[in-house]
């Protein structure tokens, strides 16, 4: 649901309304010609997206730990920027880290061509990783990621949809205003794996940062 209270800028609010309207119209037309959004059975290969910065990656680590506690058989891959990837490098709950840097998370403006090529690269990378489930944890500024998840054809696409184009997701997680960011990420995991966000209320939000010792073993800070 798109609500004005979730936007600081009226311009961004109107843009999201227009984008959401366009996506809904596209889905309506596709349904009329017999096409349906891709959706499939849930598997164990899950891809978590965090394409911003190291701090954002650290705020995701409690949710990763929570996910493995709920479902130890999950095969977790993190698609992250080179900065955020540092939060996952030696994390024993993460099976693989794939690094991609995108211009819209950098300071300064990017050219339209560079933005389009980077978006195509993001879709291609998601396809290469071939997850059963893809989760976008960001509650703001995620339109490109939602679009990429859809175009990559991932069977289960999970995230917040309160700022538009939620129709691109197969599971829209209810957004609660004013909740701690780390708790928001835990809520998404709880909804994904249990169907309810209730279990996230008792999750420890202490971030984990793992480093490798000289003998190759991992330890946390």
Characteristic key phrases:
single chain, 221 residues, alpha/beta, 6-stranded parallel β-sheet, 8 strands, 37% helix
What topology does this entry show?
Layout: H1 10-32, E1 45-50, H2 54-70, E2 75-80, E3 96-99, H3 112-129, E4 133-136, H4 143-151, E5 156-160, E6 171-173, H5 181-194, E7 210-212, E8 218-220
Helix pairs in contact: 2-5, 3-4
What can you tell me about this protein's structure?
With 221 residues, the protein is α/β, with parallel strands linked by helices. Helix content is 37%, strand content 15%. The protein contains five helices and eight strands, in the order H-E-H-E-E-H-E-H-E-E-H-E-E. The strands form two sheets. A six-stranded parallel sheet has the order 3-2-1-4-5-6, with helices on both faces. It has a two-stranded antiparallel ribbon with strand order 7-8. A hairpin with a 5-residue loop joins strand 7 (210-212) and strand 8. Helix 3 (112-129) crosses helix 4 (143-151). The longest helix has 23 residues, at 10-32. The radius of gyration is 17 Å and the shape is globular. The termini are far apart.
How big is the Rg? Answer: 17 Å
Q: Which structural category do the helix and sheet elements fall into?
A: alpha/beta
Provide mean pLDDT, rounded.
Answer: 87
Q: List low-pLDDT spans.
A: none
Q: Quick one: biggest sheet?
A: 6 strands, parallel
What is the share of helical residues?
25-40%
User: Span between N and C termini?
Assistant: 39 Å
Shape: globular
Give the SSE order as H and E letters.
Answer: HEHEEHEHEEHEE
User: How large a portion of the residues is in β-strands, by DSSP E?
Assistant: 15-25%
The number of helical runs is: 5
Number of strands: 8
Output the strand order for the largest sheet.
Answer: 3-2-1-4-5-6
């Amino acid at each position: 649901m798109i609500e004005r209270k979730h936007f600081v800028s009226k311009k961004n609010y109107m843009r999201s309304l227009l984008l959401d309207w366009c996506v809904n119209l596209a889905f309506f037309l596709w349904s009329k010609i017999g096409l349906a959004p891709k959706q499939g059975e849930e598997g164990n290969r899950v891809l978590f997206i965090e394409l911003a910065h190291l701090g954002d990656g650290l705020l995701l680590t409690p949710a990763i730990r929570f996910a493995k506690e709920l479902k130890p058989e999950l095969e977790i891959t993190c698609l992250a920027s080179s900065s955020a990837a540092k939060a996952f490098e030696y994390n024993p709950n993460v099976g693989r880290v794939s690094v991609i840097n995108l211009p819209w998370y950098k300071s300064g403006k990017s050219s339209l061509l560079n933005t389009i090529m980077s978006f195509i690269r993001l879709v291609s990378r998601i396809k290469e990783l071939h997850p059963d489930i893809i989760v976008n944890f960001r509650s703001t500024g995620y339109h490109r990621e939602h679009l990429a998840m859809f175009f990559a054809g991932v069977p289960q696409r999970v995230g917040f949809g309160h700022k538009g184009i939620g129709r691109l997701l197969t599971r829209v997680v209810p957004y609660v205003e004013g909740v701690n960011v780390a708790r928001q990420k835990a809520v998404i995991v709880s909804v994904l794996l249990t169907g309810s966000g209730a279990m996230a209320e008792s999750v420890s939000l202490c971030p984990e940062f793992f480093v490798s010792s000289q003998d190759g073993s991992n330890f946390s800070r």
